[in-house]
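ingest -> validate -> predict -> emit
validate: passed (alphabet ok, no gaps, 220 aa)
predict: started
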Amino acid sequence: MVTIAHVVRKLMKDKPFIQECMNENLINFGALAEYLKPDIEKELGKDVKHLAISMALRRYTEDHQKSPLLQLKIDAKSELIAIANQIEIIVKKSSRALVAINKFANGLKIEDGDRLSVIQGSREISIVVNAKHYDKLKSSLSGEKIISIKRNLGIILMYIPKKYIDTPGFFYFLSKCLSFNNVNMLGMSNIKTEVSFLFENDDLPRAYEILCELIPKENS
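emit:
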């Protein structure tokens, strides 16, 4: 038998931002019940009391706040590194483009701080590198179809304990903290315990501050 509680759970799955506000106790249950009332009555095919919806919402929130995802915390062993002045060039994927990128990479001096990130999609390749190498990279890709070029980018590297790799919702937790603080993340990827975030240079300080706040002090 379909109940008000069942319908509330179903509706909340389609409204993640409302869920987040409920988890932070920022929602007026009476107002939310009024907002959901038409959808719930349509689903059940009958009139439903406003108070019954409010009670179902409160029970849903209490249960949801106990979920493992909401208990996630970054531990003090995590580390952050911010790197400004990066550029990204996206090219159409081809064997020739891969050869050109490899040749370009061989000319970098990693020991002197050069950094290169290459991500292959099914149709495109993203190359992120220090801005000082823009001309050299552009020249290396001569003849390739360049899809987009982005300048004034910054990267934040987050080194995390291995236990987080298999923790459901961990990467969502990180991106949620950034988006809820109005910081636009251009991309995120990870290699084992190293998570890489891509931002506009202007967003880099705020993003670093937000992620730092997630890491407790060693003695806390």
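The first helix runs from residue 4 to 13.
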